[in-house]
Amino acid sequence: MESIILSGAHQVCQIVNNMPMEQLWNCQEIISAYVNSLKGQPDNLVQKVVDILKENRKEEKVEAYIYLSSIIINITLESNELEVLERYIINTTELNAGKKHFLFYQIKSLMFCNKSLTTEKTILFKWQLFRQIVQMYKMLIKKELKYIPKEERNTNFVLVITEQFLKTEHGPTKTALDRCRTLIKEEKKNVLLVNSAEFGNFYDNCLFYNSKYGSYLQSNIEMQEMEWKDVKIPYVQCDNGMPDPEVIDMLLEMVYRLKPEYIVMIGGNSIFANLADNIVPVLAVGLSPSAMETTMVSYQTLTRKLDEQDIRVLHEMGKSEDSIIQSVFTSGLKEQTEHITREQLGIPQDAFVLAVVGARLDVEVTENFCEMLESVLNEKIVVAFLGEYNEYYKINKEKYPKLKKYSYYLGFCADILAYLECCDLYVNPIRSGGGTSSVESLYKGVPVVTTEYGDVPTNVGEAFWVKDYEEMKKVIKRYYSDSEFYQKQSEYALQRVKRLLDTDGEFVKIISEMERREQCKA
Q1: CA-to-CA distance for 265 and 158, rounded, in angstroms?
Q2: What 3-state DSSP class applies to 377?
Q3: Is the pLDDT of residue 372 over 60?
Q4: Number of helices (H), then strands (E), in the chain
Q5: Rounded to the nearest 5°, which phi and psi values hold at 4?
Q6: What is the reported pLDDT for 213?
Q7: What is the pTM of this model?
Q8: C-alpha span between 190 and 196 (Å, rounded)
Q9: How far is CA 171 from CA 363, 436, 444, in A?
Q10: DSSP letter string over 299-362?
Q11: Average of per-residue pLDDT values in the chain
Q12: At residue 281, what are phi and psi to the nearest 5 degrees?
């Protein structure tokens, strides 16, 4: 068996080194099947495979080197391997801006999904790569970037930029709509929402193993306004070929023509918004309550306080602590339109139901998390998986008999609040994301149990934290057996969520603080 696996590693190297990248798609399934076959193999054998991949990387074959490195990172999930790749991408001059932009998003996705890859060094290199990409696009555009003084700007108009605009179940989409509504209703501004479509299917050559692509709604291209709650928001959407220097030039010309007082960017990575920061101030609304956005614009929001690592990274990038506006990350919830019973879902009426919610559960539900669930589940305590979890059907019955027997996969839920009504406790795996669904859980009075890492603990607060999975087991059992404790935590959840839903109040505070800091600069 070992000789077959090692021979397979050599074959993968031969394919990657000798096949044109645009044709590598045809071998994706073969390569993926090989990498997946390494799961469960002895560590020393996996290390031999990694050594073969490293030995066969050739720095002069840039795209093949990157692809083999991406396989190594997916196999090892070691931060030092990511550092090697980040340095290589930054230093090579053989990749254009579009390819580096694509690779930035692959690195960002890997770090978001894998805690082990997120270190001070990988964060700093990611930021340096992004700065380089912005500078490369600045060299590609024709428009000369000149700052518009405040007195020449239209104080009644604000531009809002989002890289992706999907359906209202999508967190960043709701974030964009909510901020637009606040600007219109509370700040009395005229607003234009621009979907720059920079996080889409913008690059289709096979540069990265297991690459991720953003979704794009072609049906929105003809839309001229979006309705959200009690407002209508003027809307423009770019074609799914961004970032395109010619289109960016036109967008920047629009900024000069409209002269917004300031720009609000949803997230931090729009090339258009980062270049527009040379014209008017840009505020990046951070999409991760627990982490800084990788961005070069004037201001960004952050829910938690800056720590020493944050400050070191900011200083390395030539930015100060004044670029960070500490704030509460608020969410807008999609209105609940239906009520669902446990009977309809096939869940036992008298069971204590744990909810595990997410769009990336295939990655986030790890073996350690499964082992934790295995130790608490029984006929009285069951778990429901809500979201996308295709690996659910591959749960090993011999290894996790209780998890297999006492779990339910409910799939994607259009009306998540209706499903959460059928659950008793929101259980969060160790992961970066999950922030919006945890707020939805609090809104229904469903307590949360989470470790201290990621967006969920930042949102829900220390009352719901545990140290690790060992403590999580004990706390889950306490929620089940101690009704007084459960009731107290449920009431706190309802209190906590009030501030997390107050976008009007909190976003107005952010805008006021940005304006104050701008005034101090004058």
Answers
A1: 11
A2: coil
A3: yes
A4: 21, 13
A5: -65, -45
A6: 85
A7: 0.88
A8: 19
A9: 19, 7, 18
A10: EEEESSPP-HHHHHHHHHTT--GGGEEE------PPPP-----HHHHT--TTSEEEEEEES-HH
A11: 93
A12: -65, 140
**Residue whose token pair is 């967006």:** 455
Residue 335's alpha-carbon distances to 109, 169, 438, in angstroms, are 29, 10, 16
Contacts of 519 (CB under 8 A, 6+ apart): none
Helix (H) or strand (E) holding 385: strand 381-387
Q: Worst-scoring range by mean pLDDT, 24-28, 228-232, 267-271? A: 24-28
Matching residue, tokens 């400050």? 311
Closest to 133 (Cα-Cα) out of 107, 110, 106, 104: 104
Task: Judge contact between 101 and 243, C-beta under 8 A.
Answer: yes
**Residue 219 banded pLDDT, cuts 50, 70, 90:** very high
**Distance between CA 147 and CA 132 in Å, rounded?**
21
The rounded distance, in Å, linking the Cα atoms of 450 and 355 is: 12
> What is the residue type of 451?
T
Q: Is the pLDDT of residue 324 over 60?
A: yes
Nearest to 196 by CA among 286, 275, 111: 275
Packing angle, helices 43-55 and 62-76, rounded to 10: 170
